[in-house]
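Q: How would the structure tokens look for this protein?
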Amino acid sequence: MIASMAAFAIALTPMSSATAILRPSAEDFSSMSLLAVVGTLGFVGRDLFSRAAPPTLTKEVLGFYGFTTMVIAGAFFLVFQLA
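A: Here is the predicted structure in token form.
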């Protein structure tokens, strides 16, 4: 019942709102939105590298490498934030 009501509500949504989402103007662009793309690439890289890692590496070692990478990335962003 609830799912059919949600589908009905979505069907009644005006197309003008979809056009606003699909066609943003250049004034609405924020360079901070690129962080979402970088984050997604990070998740993809993590998944690919964890599959390619040899079975001798434990989850603790992989976690340590991931944490170290985040610390380095945070220091990198901090330098550019202060500049």
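Helices lie at 2-11, 15-22, 34-52, 59-82.

The mean pLDDT is 77.

Upvote if useful.
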